[in-house]
Amino acid sequence: PPSPLQPPGLPLAPCRSFSNNKIQVELDESSGVAVMKFKSPPVNSLSLEFLTEFSISLEKLENNRACRGVIITSALPKIFSSGLDITEMCGKSIEHYTEFWRAVQEMWLRLYGSNMVTVAAVNGSSPAGGCLIALSCDYRIMAENPKFSIGLNEAQLGIVAPFWFKDTFVNVVGHRIAERSLQLGSLHPAPEAHKLGLVDELVPEEKLMEKAAAVMAQWLALPDHARQLTKTMMRKVVLDRLVAHREEDIKNFISFVSKESIQKSLRMYMEMLKKKK
Amino acid sequence: PPSPLQPPGLPLAPCRSFSNNKIQVELDESSGVAVMKFKSPPVNSLSLEFLTEFSISLEKLENNRACRGVIITSALPKIFSSGLDITEMCGKSIEHYTEFWRAVQEMWLRLYGSNMVTVAAVNGSSPAGGCLIALSCDYRIMAENPKFSIGLNEAQLGIVAPFWFKDTFVNVVGHRIAERSLQLGSLHPAPEAHKLGLVDELVPEEKLMEKAAAVMAQWLALPDHARQLTKTMMRKVVLDRLVAHREEDIKNFISFVSKESIQKSLRMYMEMLKKKK
Amino acid sequence: PPSPLQPPGLPLAPCRSFSNNKIQVELDESSGVAVMKFKSPPVNSLSLEFLTEFSISLEKLENNRACRGVIITSALPKIFSSGLDITEMCGKSIEHYTEFWRAVQEMWLRLYGSNMVTVAAVNGSSPAGGCLIALSCDYRIMAENPKFSIGLNEAQLGIVAPFWFKDTFVNVVGHRIAERSLQLGSLHPAPEAHKLGLVDELVPEEKLMEKAAAVMAQWLALPDHARQLTKTMMRKVVLDRLVAHREEDIKNFISFVSKESIQKSLRMYMEMLKKKK
User: CDD domains, alphabetically (chains A, B, C) (predicted)?
Assistant: First the structure.
């Protein structure tokens, strides 16, 4: 059985890893800790394929008794994840929108409701859906680089964060800060994000994984069962709200994304991104 | 169409204003920003007439497509608003109490639920109902003068803030601070109010309007529709609670204010205020 | 009638006191303030007998018109209260578990719902149920000694804090801090507890009772009726949740504590405590 007190990753034990197209996972069975790295250039955007791989990877780890915790980070420089892939929301069929949105929900339900200890090692910018992933972990460590920013900036694109993004955000930063940040679609530079409580800790980028492993060891020192029941008690209300309104939430997304005005502003945003390159 | 990026108030565009007895409103159509000034000496107390004018002014602006945001401030020195007018609660008929309380509710429902960006420029003390007005805005800037104080001090007069005052307060400062502040009926000097998160920013009094215009410009840089939907998502639960219990809340107020003990302490309080002059 | 403005405890007025086996109570009728001292060596653990005395003492004071506030502290050095007495949870009958858990609930319902002003003068460590007692007061002052710690550390023993411990905690420190602290079973040294908002104020140990009396005088300066209604408004939702689920909560406790794995870890914990001595 894995010892929670053993320094993670040190005396090298049998280690299983698997890699899909978009995400690479390495599980150190001696520590019980998996490291999940997003590797979908250029910006780890959350496409349908990415989200599907993400959910499957989480499910595999969740069902692996040798895995007790997962550190989520990016294999790309400067970016953690750019959030939902806008190409999935432009000029597609209703069926596609339905499948895509269900995959977004699925990812969040698995991550926010995970029985594993989840630590986000945010090693780059993390807007919108990228921020949601960080918010859904148990603990957030961010590289202290002020050029990296994080936030639910949906309002800047003329779109509205779904209620469960909002619920997750309020649970982390409280109502006043969430209200202002969501309305302004703020992207907070790392130091500001730390001040607001959006991330729990800042460390120099080169120390990020070391710190994440140390935090993970601290969380894994607790008996799993009590910790898991406690986590469920804290998050159940918000998880249940999406489960209860899942189909309605999909309908809302479809009706929103089908609007010509929204399609137009998403297309303009994509053009802008292309020109930036 | 108004440009949100244009510095507000500069190249002078057609500007509409209207003024009632108690409140003066100037709308700068080029920026889309209205300034609403309370001018009901001596202390901008919220009489039935004041509240009615306030609600009507908000409604006019809300329905004016040229108006996207409103800055609320006082035309009087040292006082933002002293809160509910106690003379409306003393020795009047049930019908009067009913009409008065409905006007208080109406004002809050309009302000807290406004689709406009609302910025409070708190340029003086702001107890009780005055504090509620500030709490109901999107952003609160206060003159840094420590002689100016703000808070829901109802308990000091032996009365209880209604549940929707409390809900609004908890949304801004969180449960612990609200619980203590409401029980003690605290009036927080500006620096303390800032520390508690009751106001978002302190500036020297002479910079207050300039700062409010700058903040407003920042908020107006966002597309209205997404910002409005986001605001609704954040505030709907609390707004709906009053809507659902409005008549009950009126009955509570009447039964409370009709008590001889309450009438007595309100009369004593008014005597004290008169002597102060 | 007691004057709230009189310095508490000074010109000695008629003073009633009563003492049971575990708790000593002194009521100063001139100030309206009772001091309740836990005196159950070695660590003021919350046995069935202790809890019963605590509830009865609170009830007596609550029904005594001369008493308006209570300061809760420990008569023992270095420890406020060690929390629930584990011997009550080991190798006992279902009937005993039922009676014990009902007593825990009863104590909390009386303390969190008290009409009196309640000030915790935390003069030593305060884990688990000891922390709950402090959290249930209106105000928490702690001796600034960093060797004293406080927190809901149930997860460390492999058990889960009940939902109403959690609700009380969230009301004090907010969701993010409660989530992390509960999952880690953290015991926060006094300075950290202060930083997190878990305690409101730190003072040198020798000034603790003086400060508690001063805070009490400040709270008693408010009219009782308005303050009590305000407190009820703030706490009712959380109190009602336990009242509505009381029997279910007892069943949960019994089914949990009856598990062989839990019995084993509680026995191990007790052995460890014995060896420490």
Answer: crotonase-like
How many angstroms away from the CA of C61 is the closest CA of chain A? Answer: 35
Q: Cβ neighbours of residue A262 under 8 Å, at least 6 residues apart? A: A158, A159, A256
DSSP summary character for residue A80: S
Which is nearest to B123 in space by CA: B211, B47, B186, B2? B211
Count CA atoms closer than 13 A to A26's CA, side-chain side.
Answer: 13
C-alpha A67/C-alpha A22 separation (Å) is 21
Name residue, tokens 């909002």. Answer: A166
Residue C199 is assigned to a structural domain of this protein: yes
- In this structure, chain A runs to a length of 277
Query: Cβ–Cβ of B166/C218 closer than 8 Å?
Result: no
Residue (of B84, B192, B213) closest to B148 by Cα position: B192
**A137 chain-C contacts, CB cut-off 8 A:** none
Assigned token pair, C83: 């929390």
The answer, for A163 touching chain B at a CB cutoff of 8 Å, is: yes
Residue A10 lies in a domain: no
What does pTM read for this prediction? 0.93
The minimal CB distance from A183 to the residues B172, B173, B227 is found for B227
* C222 part of contact set with chain B, CB < 8 Å: yes
Compute the nearest-CA separation of C265 from chain A (Å).
11
Collapsed DSSP state (helix, strand, coil) of residue B2: coil
In 3-state terms, chain B is what percent helix, strand and coil (to 5)? 50, 20, 30
**How far C163 CA sits from the closest chain B CA (Å)?**
17
DSSP letter assigned to residue B89: G
Chain A with chain B: Cβ pairs closer than 8 A: 56
The count of domains in chain B is 1
Per the domain annotation, does C10 fall within a domain? no
Asked, for residue C175, whether it belongs to a domain, the answer is yes
Phi, psi of B201 (to 5 degrees): -155, 145
Q: Does C54 touch chain B (CB under 8 A)?
A: no
The answer to whether B186 and B153 are in contact (CB under 8 A) is yes
pLDDT tier at A3, thresholds 50, 70, 90: very low
What is the distance between the terminal CA atoms of chain B, rounded to a whole angstrom? 49
Q: How much is the ipTM here? A: 0.92
Q: What is the extent of the structural domain holding A127?
A: 15-219+227-276
Stretch 22-41 of chain B: residues touching chain C, C-beta under 8 Å:
none
Chain C interface, mutation test: which of A141, A230, A231, A238, most C Cβ atoms within 10 Å? A230
C195 CB-near residues (< 8 Å, 6+ apart): none
Per residue in A161-207, pLDDT tens?
999 999 999 999 999 999 999 999 999 999 999 999 999 999 999 99
CB spacing of B174 vs C172 below 8 angstroms:
no
CATH of the domain at B98: 3.90.226.10
